[in-house]
Request: fold
Amino acid sequence: MMRIRLRLSDYLRILEHARLGLPNESCGLIAGGIKEAVKEVEKVYALDNPDASPEHFSIDPRAQLEAIKDMRSLGLIPLGNFHSHPSTPARPSDEDIALAYDPAASCCILSLAEDEPVLKCFRIERATGKTWEEKIELIR
Reply:
């Protein structure tokens, strides 16, 4: 099973982006490399949610393209995306499953529903609706 290695500073960046976006969902992309069974996050792209909704998100195609160009220029690969759930748990919603087009991509969900934020990452197989949690390893 794949694991995600995430620097504490990148986790804090995702958390800050999500808190600043409240009451709406916030989103972005993660990029890096894959070594053995570990996805190494090297860069977090905090992007706007043009839907401005507390229940769903989308990523502006132009912003996504700019992020992909930046990844390529740095020799990174897209590893997946992240988004926040302002008032629901850190697990894929029915909409998250329906919109998961790449089963190899990590879908990281940060729940702000409780006092203590919870970040979990998943691989999602849209065709079957199956989800697999990926272990997150926070490093300094």
